[in-house]
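User: Just a sanity check before I run the rest of the batch. Below are the structure tokens for the first item. I only need the designed sequence back.
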């Protein structure tokens, strides 16, 4: 009896859900985003290591706290996605000569949306949900200079 129920559920899924999912996954933008996620998976697995470390830390309190590393690395995952999605679009559109500038433009748009605060020491965001991105003012100046000059070379 249980096997007949399972076969009926499987038949319903095959008949109704699979065609919709095939249509969804064959779209252009789904392919771009799924490729970007595949690039990010190894990094997100590595960034989960401090979370496992904090489980051990509950039993051994003398170990250092690595939770800021987790927050920072997940913020980097967002920045990597902001780079990879426009980069992949440019590559799929056979605009490989513009793929790097597309990716850096995505990073620039990502950082603009983070509402940065600039101090003498660093530039940081105030949105904890996107994690904190901190970089030296020199790095941000170099990046903006690179974006503004390389966009006009080709």
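Assistant: Here's the designed sequence for the first item:
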């Amino acid at each position: 009896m249980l096997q007949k129920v399972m076969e009926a559920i499987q038949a319903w899924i095959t008949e109704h859900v699979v065609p919709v999912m095939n249509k969804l996954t064959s779209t252009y933008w789904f392919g771009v985003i799924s490729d970007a996620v595949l690039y990010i998976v190894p990094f997100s697995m590595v960034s989960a290591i401090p979370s496992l470390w904090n489980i051990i830390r509950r039993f051994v309190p003398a170990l250092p706290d690595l939770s800021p590393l987790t927050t920072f690395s997940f913020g980097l995952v967002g920045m990597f996605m902001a780079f990879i999605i426009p980069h992949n679009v440019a590559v799929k559109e056979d605009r490989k000569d513009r793929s790097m500038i597309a990716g850096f433009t995505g990073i620039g748009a990502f950082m603009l949306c983070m509402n940065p605060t600039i101090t003498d020491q660093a530039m940081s965001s105030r949105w904890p949900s996107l994690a904190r991105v901190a970089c030296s003012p020199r790095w941000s100046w170099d990046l903006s200079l690179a974006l503004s000059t390389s966009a006009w070379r080709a």
